[in-house]
Fold each of these.
Amino acid sequence: MKQSRWQQATYRHPYLFALLLLVAAFIANALLQPNLLEPTTLNRNMRVFLPLILVAVGQAIVMIGGGIDISVGSIVSVVNAILATQIGLSGDLSTAGVMMGVALLVGMGAGALNGLFIAYLRLQPIITTFATSFIYAGLALFILPNPGGGAPSRLTAFYRETIILWLPLAFYVIALILLIWAVVRRTRYGRYLYAVGGKADAAYETGVPVRAVQFSTYVISGLMAALGGIAMTLLTGSGNAQVGDPLTLSSITAAVIGGTPLSGGAGGVAGPIMGAIILGLIRNIISFANVATWWQTFVNAAIIVLALAMPGIINLVRRRTR
Amino acid sequence: MTRRHFALFTLVLMTAALIAACGGAPATTAPTAAPASQPATTPAPEGKKFTIGISNPFISSEYRTQMIQSLIEINKEYMERGITNELVIESADTDVAGQILQLQNLINKGVDAILVNPSDVNGLNDTLQEAINKGIIVISVDQELNTPGVYNVGIDQKEWAKISARWLAEKLGGQGNIVLIEGFPGHPANIARMEGVEEVLKEYPNIKVLGRETGRWDQATGQQVMSNFLASFPNLDGYWTQDGMAIGAMQAVMAANPSKWPVLVGEGRCQFLQLWDQRLKEDPNFETIAVANPPGVSPTGLRIAVNMLLGKQVDKSKLGGANGLSFVIPIPVIVTKDNFQEVFTTVCKDKPATYLLDGIMTDEEVQQFFLK
């Protein structure tokens, strides 16, 4: 069957639908909350969205490679537990720097363990990372049984209040991610990634190092989760061994809204970033539209389901009308 | 514009309309954000009406439902007097980041006071500080926060646990084998309660704790944990548990129906009193204790917030807690065999089984915390 132009466009630009949705959500939010565009308001929102953005980018890369990572939330929790206990509320900046480095290594290590099981021992990604998520969650609880600890306010203030040229810190982080991704996806590794996710067998036969590529996606995901954990710690300024739990499913939702199919081999990084922002904007819209208390959860979920189903609905409608 | 583009355009419009509709539809019961835009049906005493925001990060519990409902009810009283606007309620199951967003939105909406039931002991500190810096009165209800400038309104969780723990120890005559079923480990209220229990048990060295397990403040989990305990320790003399789990635990005992029932503690819910009543029909000598954990501390907190907004000075000598900023609310109801019939036949008569025994201080009673 000949593809419609919409299908072609969404195939070539997987983030197209997310972009439309982002614009719609942003306009709706700005109408309800007129000061949304002020730098301080924008910053307040973006600093809350950033942890999920980082985790969703890692998730998307795993999904492009044909896998899925259920353990990201727990990795965020481990990192949060390490930072909160090792830096502490009165910690100095050099310790903080060292511990953040350690946190990144821990995240990559956790990802490497996932990758080892999945790429080299050929276990099912969903079951493996589900199982390892309990290992990491257990580790987080072991490090930090009771919520507490924290990060010094000088450090959290940097994360919470940095605005350069009217743009919040988060924008520069996003720009950096997009820049790195733009380079990576043009390299051989980038092409391998899509080949492995699309059809691993065919990729293997044409000489693509399938296992190494799969392994690498989990390491990247672990790294991004660790960065998400650092951002989360700086946002809350405290430690809680369960802080990352809700990020797992949100990161998958953000990636899917952002045009990354669960079947792998397609998608990108811009889409999931938008997806994560959209999820946050939806919460804002509900808040500012004065949705009645008992309906908030329902409306939030309904909009997310609609956002997930919309590309399918568009395709369906377009096939009918042709 | 081609047909195709038109179809796409329509879809985008529909999405936007739907988002807008979802927001607009239930607006009849929704709070209004800006005090200025409120048409003044009843003239405010000093021209300005106050707006109070609520942040609640956990909704799947009867406690929170009752809390929100009574907050709305009590606020109506002040609305009729022309003192406040409708509440701005941010209530959804969410994480720490989500609650930070809730609080930021409340700040952004220009509320005059925030009542927050915190999901984390320290995670909200910076955000609450921002609110305080903007001159917003911040009150943490139900759970105590040790954050400078944040007032707390709640019961003394430690004392609350001690009441039933002491009753259990006395009832056992100071000796026997017991088990403990606790709430979420690491949760501030649970930590305080278990400390209280340990303090009481220290006074009774002949009471041996055979096991301690979490029932996650959940009825089904409480039932399961208790079933396991009954299977492992058939000669259990008693057990201590907390609200949310005591119903499940007692149901487990009912199902197992051992020849000698362990001495048990209950919870201040009508459903538990029903079980109590049921057991009394089988064993007229049965007795237990139910200490209310009142959701009414939040509406009491609302009254305190309103009085503070009206410019009344807090009498700091009446406050306690780590920061000296805690309004400690007395426990409204303790049900024992002496008043069981009375409470069961009056308070629970026309209430649903999920109703928590409650108590909300009146505006007059709240005045004790303020300088005359």
Amino acid sequence: MEGGPLLQDWWTAESKNFVLYLNITSKVDTHPDQGMLQKKGGNGFPYVVMMDSGGEVLTTFRPNAATDVQAAAAKANDFVSARDASAKNPKDDDAKARYLMVKLTMKPDEAERKALDVAMKGKVSKATKEKFDGFVAGERIKSWEQGFRTTMRAAKPEEREATQAAEAVKAYEAWKGGMKPPTDDVAWLNYAMICCGGAIKSGDKAGAEGIVTWIETFSVKFPQLKDTVKKMREDIANIGKTETPKEAKEAK
Amino acid sequence: MRITSFALLMLFVAPFLAQEPADMETKYQEKLKKEFISKVPWEMKLDDAMAKAREQKKLIIGYFTRSYAP
């Protein structure tokens, strides 16, 4: 980081929009702000955060490109404006719900999750309801991912491929039932890739193509995805054929 | 067996135990000379960064690094 991105011109230009705070853990007590890393939730180096003017950590990120800084700033600004709006109107359920959703996305908290349900029962706008639906879908995906990991860990090595395929088909069914990524966020990429595999396995060309198109949008930022997308498209093209190229190869 | 384990442990731990405060200070001063630090204006105290952020109505980017080890 220090020998790469932080020496580049985009960083010099982009960083002008922020106040920059440098903390160096030196193990010399007389140096400024020793121990601040732990106070701000860090446990490794480098640790990069976006904070408000009160020193509250709003998000963590890796500044590898200008877009990373911009995305972190957008996230932080969303948090600040939702928090301020809620503080200004404490009785406004809509503002409270929006604030809690942003906050819970950053850090899960059981009591605040319950408070969100209470706020959602109050007077909230259609847009907030839609946002809430997306939030719930995100929660379901995260919970599914947890279950998926547990299932895969429990599977015997010789059963893994079949287990993953079966789980992928189930995930795709859930996708069709509305469990779709609520935002164009890379956090949902793994889930989308598994669902795409499920759609292919289910023989659903249109469904698989729809998911691949969504996945493909990330290949600008992650060029290595292009090969995966290409492979998925080949598999989609083979849907309906009597045997997949892999099966044909195995038959030989 | 115990002696071997102790020797192995010391092999990894000794370089850190050997770091005197003066070494730490030297490493800190060397870190301050790094190009990434001189390239942009950093605040070294969070209180100062917060005051500046309030005044300029900006967010703070906090970069946490270390000087005692590479």
